[in-house]
Design brief:
- The protein is mostly helical.
- The chain is about 50% helix and about 10% strand.
């Protein structure tokens, strides 16, 4: 989450430096406010980067509402990747929820669970923190 480990400005600059087309915050609004990241949606919009929020509590998986929102947004995420754009998932620490949604997107795009997890953990060893997150991330609709 921008503002969690260093200044919001530094973290935001790093977030957008890779040129994502879509940023998905997988944290709660309260977590965003605690990190002084409540300006994130507007700052991304100013750069013409789409922003979405999947409001999931730390160490948890999506509830029914966020599961439905995921299904609704999935074509946008897939089309972005297939057209050469980047999708970044961020959460409070950048491990559990971010890893869970990243792996699920890879699974939905045809990757095996093993390959997706191996690839994610080669960049982020802490990706996916709980068995429930692993179970949710491994599914394909």
């Amino acid at each position: 989450m921008p503002g969690k480990f260093s200044s919001f400005h530094e973290d935001f600059s790093q977030l957008v430096s890779s040129g994502p087309k879509v940023v998905v915050t997988c944290a709660t609004t309260a977590e965003m406010i605690d990190c002084s990241a409540n300006s994130l949606p507007q700052k991304l919009q100013n750069l013409e980067i789409k922003w979405f929020q999947l409001n999931v509590d730390d160490f948890q998986v999506p509830d029914k509402n966020n599961e439905e929102k995921w299904k609704y947004l999935l074509p946008t995420f897939k089309n972005t990747v297939l057209s050469g754009g980047g999708v970044i998932f961020n959460c409070l620490g950048g491990c559990g929820r971010s890893g869970m949604f990243s792996m699920r997107l890879l699974r939905e795009m045809g990757w095996s669970a093993e390959h997706a997890l191996e690839r994610l953990r080669s960049f982020r060893p802490c990706a996916i923190e709980t068995e429930d997150q692993m179970s949710w991330a491994s599914k394909v609709d």
